[in-house]
What we know:
By secondary structure, the protein is of the alpha/beta class.
Amino acid sequence: MQLHLIRHGETNWNKERRVQGQSESHLTDLGIQQAKELGQRIGHLEFDRIYCSSSLRTRQTAEHAFSKSTTEINYLDELREIFLGPWEGHLYEELAETEPESHRHFWEQPHLFRVNGAESFFELQQRAIDAVAEIEATHRANSTNERKVAVVSHGALIKSYLCHVEGRSMDQLWAPPRMHNCAHSIVAFSSDDATASPTILQYADQPFSKA
């Protein structure tokens, strides 16, 4: 099985540098264009299943990217972005002034990030791991013919999952490659051995080779 991980297109809050988390924002005109261009790049691929975060920005991305696909889109709350509670809706610039230590932890030392009422990156990562495991289990149980599965989600969630697959520690979460809007990553799972570790084939549109 190949798992195709796709980040949503640019949103109004991306553009404003405003904390999104699980709050709702919408695609900008550029974000819609990014999603349509992604659809053109992956139009030759036939996805057996498509999963999507239930957030508006990912739903919009999936609608544009898979506009010509006849595959049903399944929406999952488990694929939503990291929940940032009291931070959501605030500008990152504001938080750098009011909560400088937590802001620094978020971007420079994610393994230390703790804010009351918000998820940690470790909690996000475990949610991502569990969601992918459920998707993989469903794939294995339903049909051996299902080869390609798409997941439309969010930057931090996808980053945290790839961090797990790659075996990176959480302090390396934001290490390159950058997870740009509509970035497309691919993870491969063994069809013969459910216990085998998955491997990254493509990371944010670039062929992947572990350093």
